[in-house]
Amino acid sequence: MVAEESGPGAQNSPYQLRRKTLLPKRTACPTKSSMEGASTSTTENFGHRAKRARVSGKSQDLSAAPAEQYLQEKLPDEVVLKIFSYLLEQDLCRAACVCKRFSELANDPILWKRLYMEVFEYTRPMMHPDPGKFYQINPEEYEHPNPWKESFQQLYKGAHVKPGFAEHFYSNPARYKGRENMLYYDTIEDALGGVQEAHFDGLIFVHSGIYTDEWIYIESPITMIGAAPGKVADKVIIENTRDSTFVFMEGSEDAYVGYMTIRFNPDDKSAQHHNAHHCLEITVNCSPIIDHCIIRSTCTVGSAVCVSGQGACPTIKHCNISDCENVGLYITDHAQGIYEDNEISNNALAGIWVKNHGNPIIRRNHIHHGRDVGVFTFDHGMGYFESCNIHRNRIAGFEVKAYANPTVVRCEIHHGQTGGIYVHEKGRGQFIENKIYANNFAGVWITSNSDPTIRGNSIFNGNQGGVYIFGDGRGLIEGNDIYGNALAGIQIRTNSCPIVRHNKIHDGQHGGIYVHEKGQGVIEENEVYSNTLAGVWVTTGSTPVLRRNRIHSGKQVGVYFYDNGHGVLEDNDIYNHMYSGVQIRTGSNPKIRRNKIWGGQNGGILVYNSGLGCIEDNEIFDNAMAGVWIKTDSNPTLRRNKIHDGRDGGICIFNGGRGLLEENDIFRNAQAGVLISTNSHPVLRKNRIFDGFAAGIEITNHATATLEGNQIFNNRFGGLFLASGVNVTMKDNKIMNNQDAIEKAVSRGQCLYKISSYTSYPMHDFYRCHTCNTTDRNAICVNCIKKCHQGHDVEFIRHDRFFCDCGAGTLSNPCTLAGEPTHDTDTLYDSAPPIESNTLQHN
């Protein structure tokens, strides 16, 4: 017995010899008689291993021979581990069966890591729990104590392709005694031949190196995996310069290829036939797994990966298909497959092509920086695309063409150098719950008789519009959140006819919905709000149907018809716009019915510049200016509307306006129920004009009118007022029970400013006073002339609308009838004109 050293020198000894210790209980390593050998590992200085806990005591096995007892119980751990480091894996497992102590020591992770790395080269254990499933783990985070041994057991039956090693292995049988059944090959072709001859079960490890121009045609369920230290796929490179690098044929339905770089690198980059040569070619009736591979092709035609034919159904996952001079992934001719968690980038053509009834499932792929489109489905291509990140491609992120019908769900499609999604030439597709944003052109383009479903997406912050439908496009645009785009949220043009419903279209830097150049469509139950320009534009021969929408809080007009814009606007709520709720101009002739139009800062409806329109059964109320403006040669029909509680007049017609006003209820407006001015000539028939806070009807400034069968009652200033020189045609009107506040004030000698202040314009005789230097913008009521300007040089002007400047305190002499003066500006003879939209300036 060698006495243990003490003192400082003992700590520097390479081996601290100890008697047997009583170790914490561990799971014993089972003997694997089927395990085949591995090359002898180099030794490690076990003197630096952390010491094990030790309790002195005598062995309970008194019958053991002294040598055996010493070996099993007394020999220090470090010496036993040193001896075990010279054993191969089979002998190490046999030693573990001797006793519990040996079982613990033989299961040491460092021993197994050395054996493992010598055979497989992996610097992290490669776990293989099930067929077709491989993954590397961090040993420190693994739940079991010895992942190296566990992985060794899972991978042990494989054959190895290790150029130059086979001759060395087979010419040194004594050195590798116990590994006689382990197979080594110099080439992949030889290993595949061994599978065909049933020399082993089909698990092939391809070790570090570059393997060039081997003919790899797989028609059996082999498993081929790269074996190298570090990042495995970078160090195991298989390339071909003449033919497809890997070809999977019928019979390879359960094959696996993983953890390697696969390249097709022809000398002539462009002479190959379109479908002839690829990195990976997967044909009919096979479903291999391609896992953690780097795939590159320098050929300028064809594709890096081609999956074609009925029954072609691979699983391609965790692969990098990038920097190819052609298409990245091509799925065609009824092929299917599952493609998950791949990196597809910087390919010269599309990242993914799906064609001719190809129908893959593509999930969680990162498709980006392509030199063409990101994903291209065409010629009846289909597919289910879920949770992919598609961005920064040179053309559209996703293109659908020629009867293709993909389903795209919960993807992010963004920062495209052109558009996000492009559907054309009778393309279809379902785009559901995606985020489409920050694309240079429209987020979604639909054209040339295409009919996709765009549903539940967020389409925002585009450098142009949100959804752009043109050239006979159709589509269902439903339940999307469209906002913050530089141009219109939705644009419909050139005979396109989509269904647009249940969307939120808001906070755009331009308008909400823009329908032009004979655009059509059904636009219903959307919320359109807070856009910089009009909420909805309809122009140039367009005829959409807008139904049950909420169009509100815009910074200009709610709905704007111009330049022969037509269509139907019905059952909408249009409110709280900075300009008017609806504007109609330049030959436009929409049908506007059953809408609620309120809260406009510039009136309810403005019809001007030869606008038309049939405006029926609407409720128009609480607008800051007139409920309806008709001006400049416009000629609409207003029928059965309720125009009430306006903060100005009910209907204002001026500057040559016309129109038929029939069977409307006009009531409780702050100014005249109907004001007709400046050469206008409307027809008013069977209207009820009542309960106004000013006059019922006022006609001024050389206007005329036809009044038939109207009822005018209970208006504060009076029923009907005609200015000097006005002639009207009247028949069967009933003017009754008005409050006649103007006549009563005149008869009482009051200043008319008492009843009007500067917010109303009562119609009566008005004068000027030359003594007080009044201008042609001033007016003085008859009672102030008699009282305040008695003896002055006065002049009768006419019978017309005005408020009294004397009573308002704007003249040099104080009014003796009105009381305290105000500081108002000069009189205006008409209500303030509405603001016309300047939307066209922003086109």
From TrEMBL:
Ranges of compositional bias, category Polar residues: 30-45
Alphabetical list of CDD domains matching this protein: F-box_FBXO11, UBR-box_UBR6_FBXO11
Pathway: Protein modification; protein ubiquitination
Pfam families named among the record's database cross-references: Beta_helix, F-box-like, zf-UBR
Zn-finger (UBR-type) residues: 749-820
Domain UBR-type: 749-820
Keywords: Metal-binding, Repeat, Ubl conjugation pathway, Zinc, Zinc-finger
Domain (F-box): residue spans on this chain: 69-115
Region (Disordered): 1-63
Classification via InterPro entries: Beta_helix, Carb-bd_sugar_hydrolysis-dom, F-box-like_dom_sf, F-box_dom, F-box_FBXO11, FBXO11_UBR-box, Para_beta_helix_rpt-2, PbH1
NCBIfam families: para_beta_helix
Name of this protein: F-box only protein 11
Lineage, uppermost ranks: Eukaryota, Metazoa, Chordata, Craniata, Vertebrata
Gene: FBXO11
